[in-house]
């Protein structure tokens, strides 16, 4: 049997390096910058006021006190957005609003509350009186004090979230080169499957892996598309693959890969020779397959596209744990995104058993003990159909291959899912 690490390497090798694409800022959300981004302009772009008040020369207020107030003429009124360049004559003040360009020659701002001026939407008075000195530089936001033109705004590989969108927009950047999101098409197989919302007959189940794996692909940062499941018929299955191959960077299937008499995925793809089916020493997720699918020639004679394909086992828990362990890290790396989930060491909240010779990924819930240390409570039985406990879990307990059981309190390695 192949080890988990060996199969991870095989799956990773299906993907190429990240590819650049230019996207608008809103489209770039959640993507990784492909290149370093340097500031095309300084922020702030000009010296401006941090307060509604008066721009002054600090020296003019040097002797101001309640007993000896200083009164200056108000020579200009500067709202935010005023674009003409003003200069302050010593011995005068300019009324100024937050964000407005500070006049040349002014070196401090006195907030309106510290003057005799009326606070609020009133016309500027002819004079303003100050009763305290002000430090040079006070409440002035200097050009370039946030970031200077040419400085590194975002290094390559930064995942773009709201603050990064804010910085890029402030720098006047409308489009950015990021690692291209990959298109993942998810196909489920199984004659027992019924679309949610339709009536069920005995022996039928609702199809859940397709929706679940598509959601997992989207959560991993890809563009996911769920294609309606196909019947257990190799011809129909291959025709479906041909249909979606042109639009997919990766095809994921679920089901039909174990040892049954009707394993559509395995039967159809084994014949092509470009997908290998293996057993991986893990639980859940033992039967795995991956490789490439080359679609049939197009009607005009051009060769069909070749697409990486990963065939996951049909048991729901096996499918999602396999996605987590094999696909998610490789998919994210190919999109320039940090591939690994956070891992922590926690103490077991209960005894566990584990199949000897298989690396086990048990569902768990993390909590903090009274003494502040991390504890993980294993939940649910190990069976691969227990979706309920998968939905409850916020962690996977990674139990090493050679371990057949661990007692409560043992330290374990935990993959943090949320
Ligand atoms: N004789 C053996 N039997 C099995 C073996 C084995 O080694 N020898 N391996 C077991 C293991 S482990 C797994 S995992 C499963 C994998 O089976 P398949 O990938 O062939 O999947 P199916 O047989 O199609 O389905 C398994 C199970 O999951 C349900 N299922 C399938 N697709 C969906 C879906 N889209 N939505 C919801 N549920 C789905 C299906 O109804 C089955 O109950 O094989 C074991 N057997
Ligand atoms: O190994 Mo299967 O993937 O448990 O249910």
UniProtKB/TrEMBL annotation:
InterPro entries: MoaB/Mog-like_dom_sf, MoaB/Mog_dom, MoeA-like, MoeA_C_domain_IV, MoeA_C_domain_IV_sf, MoeA_linker/N, MoeA_linker/N_sf
EC annotation from Swiss-Prot or TrEMBL: 2.10.1.1
GO CC annotation terms, alphabetical: cytosol
Task of the protein: Catalyzes the insertion of molybdate into adenylated molybdopterin with the concomitant release of AMP.
Similarity field: Belongs to the MoeA family.
Name of the protein described by the UniProt record: Molybdopterin molybdenumtransferase
This protein's pathway: Cofactor biosynthesis; molybdopterin biosynthesis
SMART domains, sorted: MoCF_biosynth
Catalytic activity: adenylyl-molybdopterin + molybdate = Mo-molybdopterin + AMP + H(+)
Highest taxon in the source lineage: Bacteria
Entry keyword set: Magnesium, Metal-binding, Molybdenum, Molybdenum cofactor biosynthesis, Transferase
BP GO annotations: Mo-molybdopterin cofactor biosynthetic process
Annotated ranges, domain MoaB/Mog: 185-333
Lyase found in the keyword field: no
Names of required cofactors: Mg(2+)
Organism of provenance: Gordonia namibiensis NBRC 108229
Gene expressing this chain: moeA
GO terms, molecular function: metal ion binding; molybdopterin molybdotransferase activity
